[in-house]
Amino acid sequence: MSTKTFLKHTDFVSTLNFHPQNPNIFISGGGDDIARTWDINNPDKPLIEIPKQNETIDFAKFNFDGSLFVTGALDGSVKVWTSNGEFKKLLEGPTDEIRFLNWHPKGNVVIAGSADNSVWMWNAISGQYMSTFTGHQQPLTCGQFSPDGNLILTASEDASVRIWKPKTGELIKKISGFGFHQEQIVCFDIHPVQCILASGSVDKIACISNYQTGKVLGKTIEHDDGVESVLFDSKLDIFYTGSLDGFARIFDLNKMTLKDKISVEHSVTKMIFLKEYSLLVVGNCNGEIHYFDHRKKGIVGKLTSGSSSMLYDLVQYQQNKFLASFDDGAIKLFEL
């Protein structure tokens, strides 16, 4: 059930992110070139709006303590703002669309991957460029710090995952070639405890790899279209995939065998896992949201947005509550 709707955006909303210290505050950004922060209890009026930018805001994320947020745009610009919306720094370097943007888990360091094939790292306080990570042969698609912050993992349309040392810019592992993806990688998830990575590709395959050794541990062959989303279960040895073929799947992590396959009727666009309820929440390109429990067969429930606008992003709010953003500019709070 949708309990609140936030309607100030006039175009698709591509990114949602909650404040790490104040769970009622979140930020949004999208195709109207504006980022907004909100109090979840007041859907009628944003807390702040940054000035309209030159291009779509693809990413907007708070830092570890919520004192800053960073935006990344279609024109390649990366900007740092205070939580009150004051512009602080332009982080210079990328020359094309920002494909991923993430903070260090414990500090004010930002990494961004670009369609110009490069990865950049900056000190967000000073705006100082720290390092460039070069080697990918095609545009970046996803990337983030390892959970301990000691490594950077990146993936690209060149069908490779690369692992870097942040302090030196050194490439320490490259995962590619036979036994791995043969076409562009579009998503990955890093296990919160184990040094393993799940990746999904347009080649219809999901792979599990050890990012310390660079070894591919296994891959799936069950998808009938590209793998758009992958997620680990933090408690159990299973992982989830969402595909353009309209199915979410559950795999045994150790055996790499298919445990269940659930139709969500249309291509999967985004997934989140509500660990308190052991529920996987799956959004699709028709604006529908399905949720299911891996311990039971089939769909537990289905939610609709009230339109057929594609779902862009999902983020958990509290336990059984989450936000979803859509192609028509709406942001909705749902409660299961």
From TrEMBL:
WD repeats mapped onto the chain: 6-42, 50-81, 91-132, 133-174
Gene3D superfamilies recorded: YVTN repeat-like/Quinoprotein amine dehydrogenase (2.130.10.10)
Keywords: Repeat, WD repeat
Stored SUPFAM superfamilies: WD40 repeat-like (SSF50978)
InterPro entries registered for this protein in UniProt: WD40/YVTN_repeat-like_dom_sf, WD40_repeat_dom_sf, WD40_rpt, WD_repeat_multifunction
UniProt-listed Pfam families: WD40
Superkingdom of the source species: Eukaryota
Keyword Oxidoreductase (UniProt): no
Keyword Repeat: yes
Protein name according to UniProt: Anaphase-promoting complex subunit 4 WD40 domain-containing protein
Organism encoding this protein: Ichthyophthirius multifiliis
